[in-house]
């Protein structure tokens, strides 16, 4: 088996998993992006429509799973919803395995601490008899952030939802200065420095694995105690 699929949202964690996989020499031949219709237990939700631009910059074909493929609308239990949300991803991977000349070896994932997500992805890999490459799993979050900065990742914050994070964080670069402030906020409010609890979400606009930078135009949408970027234009430059 030789082909790897990178579970990919365009955010920092899945992008770091992809970057590390390429550094390790894994043959990543597809990126797989799931577009949740709304809030999701399993997936990064904001700005996933920009994954196509990121894939073009990285130079790897993208497979997209649409909201209509989800079967979790009538599920009110978190565990059952997580299982249901995973089904379209697994179906997409099974479809890839049926493609002539495609020999699925494994998937990459950007999970850091979420056993809810990782246990389901591991179980999926077991069912498909493939490997899981999860280079962020169990690692120190501050060290991970610093490694991303050192590698040359340019990361933008596209959504915030936590005490201590106001409108000024929207569109801000996630860098050493931002990390230092987040560590102060961890002391005061418990904010996770990688946003693992959903405190903030990100999008990678440039990195060493990308041929061209992604230029974003956007408007900040603030809803009292949380907000997100509404991207009005995006282009490779």
UniProtKB/TrEMBL annotation:
Transmembrane segments: none annotated. CDD domains: AANH_PF0828-like. One of its GO terms (molecular function) is ATP binding. Residues 5-233 form the Diphthamide synthase domain. GO terms for biological process: protein histidyl modification to diphthamide. It comes from the Archaea. Keywords: ATP-binding, Nucleotide-binding. NCBIfam families: arCOG00187 (TIGR03679), MJ0570_dom (TIGR00290). This is Metal-binding-domain/4Fe-4S-binding-domain containing ABC transporter, ATP-binding protein. It comes from Halorubrum cibi. The lineage of its organism: Archaea, Methanobacteriati, Methanobacteriota, Stenosarchaea group, Halobacteria.
């Amino acid at each position: 088996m030789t082909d790897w699929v990178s579970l990919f949202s365009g955010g920092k964690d899945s992008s770091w998993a992809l970057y590390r996989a390429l550094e390790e020499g894994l043959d990543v031949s597809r990126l797989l992006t799931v577009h949740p219709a709304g809030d999701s237990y399993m997936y990064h939700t904001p700005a996933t429509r920009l994954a196509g631009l990121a894939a073009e910059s990285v130079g790897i074909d993208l497979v997209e799973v649409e909201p209509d493929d989800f079967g979790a609308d009538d599920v009110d239990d978190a565990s059952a919803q997580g299982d249901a949300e995973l089904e379209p991803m697994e179906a997409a991977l099974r479809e890839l395995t049926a493609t002539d000349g495609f020999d699925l070896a494994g998937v990459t994932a950007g999970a850091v601490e979420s056993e809810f997500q990782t246990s389901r992805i591991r179980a999926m890999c077991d069912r498909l008899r493939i490997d899981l490459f999860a280079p962020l799993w169990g690692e120190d979050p501050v060290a991970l952030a610093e490694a991303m900065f050192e590698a040359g990742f340019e990361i933008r914050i596209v959504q915030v939802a936590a005490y201590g994070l106001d409108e000024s964080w929207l569109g801000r670069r996630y860098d050493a200065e931002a990390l230092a402030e987040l560590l102060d906020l961890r002391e005061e409010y418990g904010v996770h420095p990688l946003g693992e609890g959903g405190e903030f979400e990100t999008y990678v606009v440039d990195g060493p694995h990308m041929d061209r930078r992604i230029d974003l135009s956007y408007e900040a949408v603030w809803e009292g105690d949380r907000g997100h970027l509404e991207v009005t234009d995006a282009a490779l430059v």
